[in-house]
Write a structure and sequence with these properties.
85 residues, alpha+beta, three-stranded antiparallel sheet, 47% helix
């Protein structure tokens, strides 16, 4: 049973970040996964993967230049503040 649970979590991590070693945006830290760019620590790899979009410039509003933490937050901002879909 333990092997099935481990397989499930490895599969979920694969879906979020790809093959092991494919995405090199983190360092395993005693408190979780640490961003190599800013040092912020996350409990799971998926959150760190989404956070990395901040450093790629994908979460900045093209109209008012507000920096948001995630792409979905930026999309919500675009609808609420600028009336765009």
């Amino acid at each position: 049973m333990v092997s099935k649970i481990r397989f499930f979590f490895l599969f979920v991590e694969f879906l979020l970040v790809g093959y092991p070693g494919e995405w090199q945006g983190s360092i395993q830290h005693e408190n979780g996964h640490r961003c190599k760019t800013c040092g912020k620590t996350f409990a799971n790899m998926g959150s760190l993967y989404k956070h990395n979009n901040v450093h790629k410039g994908k979460t900045r509003c093209p109209i008012c230049q507000v920096l948001l933490s995630r792409i979905d937050h930026m999309k919500r901002h675009m609808v609420a503040k600028h009336g765009l879909l």
